[in-house]
Amino acid sequence: MDPTRRQARTAPRKTGGPRPAPPLGPDHDPDAGWLGRVMHVAFFLLLGASLVRFLIRHEWEDRSPWIIVLSAALAALYLLGPVLGTRATPGRIAWLCTVVAVWVVLVVLAPSFAWCAVPLFFTGLRTLPARAALVLVTLLTAFVVFAQVQLSHGGWDPNLIVAPPAVAAIATGVFVHADRQAARQRALIHDLIRTRRELAAIERREGTLAERQRLSMEIHDTLAQGLSSQQMLLQAADRTWETDPATARRHVRTAESIAERNLAEARRFVHDLAPADLAEGGGLEQALRGLAERESAVFRVDGTPVALPDRAQSALLRIAQGAFANIREHAGADSTALTLTYLDDQVVLDVADDGSGFDPAAARDGGGVRGHGLPAMRVRVQQLGGTLTVESTPGEGTVLSASIPLAPPTEAGP
Fold first, then answer.
1. Buried b vs exposed e over 5-14: b needs ≥16 C-beta within 10 Å?
2. Which of 117-126, 215-224, 303-312 has the weakest average pLDDT?
3. 83 by DSSP, 3-state: which?
4. Cα–Cα distance measured from residue 167 to residue 148, given in angstroms and rounded to the nearest whole number
5. Where are the alpha helices (DSSP H) in 241-359?
6. pLDDT tens column, 309-318
7. Domain total in the chain
8. What predicted TM-score, i.e. pTM, was given to this entire model?
9. Distance in angstroms (rounded) separating the CA atoms of residues 111 and 53
10. CA 374 from chain center: how many Å?
11. I need a labelling partner for 11 at 20 to 30 A (CA). Which of 158, 200, 216, 241 fits?
């Protein structure tokens, strides 16, 4: 059976639409480490600036030692944050509650420490789920407003009521937007990675199908055709064994020679090497000349020979072998001719015989003569960008022509 070209087709995988952004919280942003370091530095700068401001603007008093001790304790607690990670574990939540509690006491003692709330907003948004984080930000903001209004000595100021919520809203909005953008980017990267893996799997499947097709054509053009020829020769020897022993022995010797070459081809398949004729040295011309001698055909080379890629040489030799196998099995030709022609832009292989011929249209449609192997030959030349033409008429012989474009000088070699 002649192999036909197959292509692997896969339906697009359904993804169920865009993926929702994950909730705010633990370690969702690849840049969270960098942003966390920035917020840590900002927290310590604000904490230090608030402490310095308090010491400069206030004389030493009873609350001063407590403010210094609580500032140091808050700084030490904040340093433990990276050790506990960013996920909402019980230890992390307990740490956050402790930090907030110490900060609240500091704000009660000195309202200037309220500016440390902005880094705490970020810490809460990274640690807690979205709703809990927003509740924490709201409570912290309300406490800052209360502390600024109730504990300041500068009188009532509208900025004390408007500024903290505005800062909290801006900080929260920027963080939420950045987190959702990062979630979309992660979903996109995940889809791209999955798509790349799927494409790699498709390419592997297509490569497997192509290799199966190549092996099927190799077996058809060599082993199968050789076995068919051996069967015909042995049947002919059996018919003439009593009446013409010399002819029968000649048929047997020819069958033995074909079997020997088929054995060499089988061994080459195991090692996935070039055709046995090409591996013996001498290139395509020598291989075709040897094939023509075995088939009692006339061989001719026209034009100036050029070096051909191994794939082109293998394909042309396989096509010639398949053509001669078809002639032996179907044509009943008295004479055959094999011509290799080098043109300026292509190399052409012609195989002509004066046999019984056939109807190419019927063979192409699946009817007519059985087992010509033309589809396999056509696939071989198409894989190399060439064309295969067959001219035949019942009772008037056949001419098969395979043309393959020559590779550019940089690819074809010297």
1. eeeeeeeeee
2. 215-224
3. helix
4. 14
5. 245-271, 276-279, 283-294, 310-326
6. 888 888 898 8
7. 2
8. 0.40
9. 11
10. 34
11. 216
Query: Helix, strand or coil for residue 146?
Result: helix
Does residue 286 fall inside a structural domain? no
What CATH number should be reported for the domain holding residue 304? 3.30.565.10
Instruction: State pLDDT tens for residues 171-208.
Output: 777 777 777 887 888 888 988 988 888 887 787 787 66
pLDDT digits (tens, 9 = 90+) for 123-177: 788 777 878 888 888 888 888 887 777 665 555 566 667 777 777 777 777 777 7
Q: What is the residue range of 64's domain?
A: 32-156
Q: Long-range contacts of range 63-68, CB-CB < 8 Å, 24 or more positions apart?
A: 63/109, 63/110, 66/109, 67/106, 67/109, 67/110
Look-up of token digits 């020997």? 260
- In a domain, residue 124? The reply is yes
Q: Which two tokens stand for residue 253?
A: 């010797």
With contact defined as beta carbons under 8 Å apart, do 6 and 207 qualify?
Answer: no
Of 254, 270, 375, 334, nearest to 4 (Cα)? 375
Per the CB < 8 A criterion, the answer to whether 218 and 212 are in contact is: no
The letter for the amino acid at 373 is G
